[in-house]
């Protein structure tokens, strides 16, 4: 008997079937309930901050406030949270003209106008000053010092010039930092490309360490970001369908530690033994291959040696950038080659680290992809076999694996960490 399975696919969905006898499980974020009233949850967090004073005791009239928000690649409901934060700033004597919003783009492309409008909402867009970070604009950056791991720290000048710094983000799995959230709004969010490159060179040690927050890359970015005197951040933990489950306000370090414990209950799921085939949607980070590659990394945790992984992602923005494609598409490039490129700064370190991850996985497992945003030629050039039709491709791979094949499906592959049991 076959079971129909629906996967998120961009803003739509795609369906295929699998024999029940082969299906080990459909593994996704655990169905935690949303909070009963998001507005009340946001107010509760702001009125009871962790490890900081409430806003009314932090800011004073005449001070300039900066609010960091994450970008189009993240599901943080900033538009729902911002009015609550802005209301408290105004009540504390900080008028609209003394507030600036800065989008923490990290090394991502700038947001489009429509993406900005959706991110901050109609109550903010076009009314408040809104800037986007550019990690390559050295003139806009200020040097703060070196971390104990010798990462030089340059951040956006607006962060340093503000009297008060606030931030809005959310906590979910990160392939190199264990979990996103907390200080990541600053590093890599508003850091220079040189800072990001230095920090991300430590991420080679994060390979096959999903969910760990004690690795050098995370520790280093926290040390770097702590050079910025952040006043109060808000972090959300979201439900499996993007609704607010919890909101935490307070110091970036404290809300991250508390929030990660809640996030683990959502995103880390049991997988009964390594499986022969993993079919993983790139959702919610499926806008391009650069983002969706993390679904392959998490699927790798569930696949046996010699197993097969299928990425299902629309990748409407393609690979991510021409430079990323060129690095991945060099014939015969090995994990050692990518590590040498990290050391030599031959291209962005973030690109080469992901290339290192991908090539390590590709050495042991067979990779496939169904994606309307990537051509077959592009996929083959980066060592991934294209599937022109998802159902036909899955059927073929099942036949190759044999009648006893064990299959797992990750409908939210970019935010699901399988734990083998």
Q: How would you summarize what this structure contains?
A:
The chain has helices at residues 38-47, 55-58, 78-91, 113-120, 157-161, 193-200, 216-225, 252-267, 289-300, 322-328, 335-344, 349-364, 376-381, 390-401, and strands at residues 2-9, 12-19, 23-26, 65-70, 99-104, 129-132, 141-146, 152-156, 164-170, 173-174, 178-179, 232-238, 244-250, 268-271, 275-281, 303-312, 366-370, 385-386, 407-410, 417-420. It has 421 residues and is α/β, with parallel strands linked by helices.
Features of the shown structure:
globular; six-stranded mixed sheet; six-stranded parallel sheet; 2-enoyl-CoA Hydratase, Chain A, domain 1; 2 domains; alpha/beta
């Amino acid at each position: 008997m076959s079971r129909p399975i629906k996967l998120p696919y961009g803003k739509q969905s795609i369906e295929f079937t699998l024999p029940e006898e082969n299906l080990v499980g459909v593994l996704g974020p655990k169905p935690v309930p949303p909070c009963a009233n998001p507005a009340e949850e946001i107010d509760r967090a702001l009125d009871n901050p962790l490890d900081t004073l409430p806003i009314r005791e932090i800011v004073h009239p005449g001070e300039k406030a900066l609010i960091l928000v994450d970008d189009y690649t993240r599901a943080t409901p900033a538009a729902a949270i911002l009015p609550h934060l802005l209301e408290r700033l105004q009540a504390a004597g900080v008028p609209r003209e003394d507030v600036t919003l800065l989008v923490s783009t990290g090394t991502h492309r700038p947001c489009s106008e429509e993406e900005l409008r959706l991110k901050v909402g109609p109550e903010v867009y076009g009314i408040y000053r809104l800037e986007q970070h550019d990690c390559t604009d050295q003139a806009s950056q200020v040097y703060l010092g070196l971390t104990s791991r010798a990462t030089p720290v340059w951040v956006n000048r607006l962060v340093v010039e503000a009297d008060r710094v606030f931030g809005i983000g959310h906590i979910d799995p990160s392939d190199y930092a264990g979990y996103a959230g907390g200080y990541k709004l600053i590093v890599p969010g508003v850091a220079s490309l040189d800072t990001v490159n230095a920090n991300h060179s430590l991420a080679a040690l994060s390979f096959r360490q999903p969910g760990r927050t004690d690795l050098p890359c995370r520790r280093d970015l926290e040390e770097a970001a702590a050079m910025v005197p952040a006043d109060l951040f808000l972090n959300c933990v979201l439900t499996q369908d993007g609704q607010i489950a919890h909101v935490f306000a307070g110091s970036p370090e404290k809300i991250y530690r508390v929030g990660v414990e809640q996030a683990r209950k959502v995103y880390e799921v049991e997988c009964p033994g390594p499986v022969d085939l993993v079919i993983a949607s790139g959702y919610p980070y499926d806008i391009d291959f650069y983002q969706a590659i993390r679904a392959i990394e998490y699927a790798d945790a569930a696949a046996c040696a010699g197993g097969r992984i299928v990425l299902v992602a629309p990748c409407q923005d393609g690979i991510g950038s021409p430079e990323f494609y060129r690095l991945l598409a060099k014939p015969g490039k090995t994990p050692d080659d990518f590590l040498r490129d990290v050391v030599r700064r031959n291209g962005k370190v973030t690109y080469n680290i992901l290339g290192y991850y991908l090539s390590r996985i590709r050495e042991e497992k067979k990779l496939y992809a169904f994606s309307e945003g990537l051509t077959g030629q592009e996929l083959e050039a980066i060592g991934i076999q294209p599937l022109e039709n998802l159902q036909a491709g899955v059927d073929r791979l099942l036949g190759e694996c044999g009648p006893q094949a064990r299959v797992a499906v990750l409908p939210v592959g970019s935010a699901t960490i399988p734990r083998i049991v």
